[in-house]
Amino acid sequence: MCERKSFCEQSSRLGLFEEIWVENIFVLIGKSESLLSSTGNSTNIKWHECSIGKVERQKLLKQRGSVIWITCLSASDGDNVRHGLNSDLSFKAEDHTENMRRIGEVAKLFAVAGVICIASLISPYKKDRDAYRAMVPDGDFVEVFMDVPLEVCEARDPKGLYKLAHARKIKGFTGIDDPYEAPLNSEIVLTHDRGVYASPSEMAEKVISYLISSEKSLQVISYLAHLRCIFPLFSGCMLMMMRLFYW
C-alpha cells in the first residue's frame, strides 16, 4: 500500500494526474479528463492520437491509406463480415445502413493506419455512400461502381438468391423488391463494351492504374516503384473481389 501511495504521489507531482481521496482511497484523475466526450450511446470516451501520424505511416509504407469501396447489385454483400461483426443484422433497409456504417468505420481505421482497404458490399443507398464519403479525407475514398445490368446478375445468380427472391422466399432483396441506387459520380466505373465484359484481372488493373495516377498529390517519390512491386499481391486481392461479383 505504501509503495502504491508513493507511486501515485510521484505521478501527481510530475503533473501527470490530479489526486483526490475518496473514503481513504487514493484516486488519480488524468489531466485529459476534460477531453472526454460522448458519441451515440458511448459516454466518457476519448479519441487517442498516435504519436506516429498518418503522413508518417504513408511514407513508411510508401502508399496512401485509402478505402476502395466496390458497390453493385447482389453477388456480394460482405458475407464474411456478416458471419461475425455484423451477424446481428438482417437485410432490411435500416440494417443495410448499419452494415455499411460498421464496415465503413473499420475501413476508415485501416486507411488512417496507411493501409489500402478494399470493401466489397452492395451498399444500395446513395445517401449512405455519400455519408461515408464525407467521413474520410478528400481523395481517400475511391468508389468503384460495378455497372452490371440486373438481367445479367439474374442470369449469373451464383448463390441462387435471385431465384429465391422471384419466388418470394426472400423479401427486401436488392434489385427485386428493394431499390439499388446506382452511383452518379464514382471515381471508377467498370462496365461492358457492347456487351463484352473485361476479365476480373483487367478490371483489377484498371483500379490499380487509377490509384497510381491519383498519387501525384501524395509526393512520395518511391510510391510508383513500390506499388509495382506489390502489384501481384494487390491485384490478387482485387481479383478476388471482382470474382465475388461476377462468378
Description:
The strands form three sheets. A four-stranded parallel beta sheet has the order 6-5-7-8. It is an alpha/beta fold. It is built from ten helices and eight strands. Residues 10-33 and 216-228 have low confidence and may be disordered. The longest helix is centred in the middle third of the chain and has 20 residues, at 93-112. The chain is 43% helix and 16% strand. Helix 4 packs parallel to helix 5 (126-135) and helix 8 packs across helix 10. The protein has helices spanning 2-13, 54-61, 79-82, 93-112, 126-135, 150-156, 161-166, 200-214, 223-229, 231-246, and strands at 17-22, 25-30, 37-39, 42-45, 66-71, 116-120, 141-146, 188-190.
**Topology order in helix (H) and strand (E) letters:** HEEEEHEHHEHEHHEHHH
The tally of beta strands, per DSSP, is 8
What's the overall average pLDDT, rounded? 76
Helical residues, percent:
40-55%
* Spatial gap, N to C terminus: 65 Å
Which strand-content bin applies to the residues? 15-25%
Determine the number of helices (DSSP H or I, runs of at least 4 residues). 10
Low-confidence stretches: 10-33, 216-228
Structural class: alpha/beta
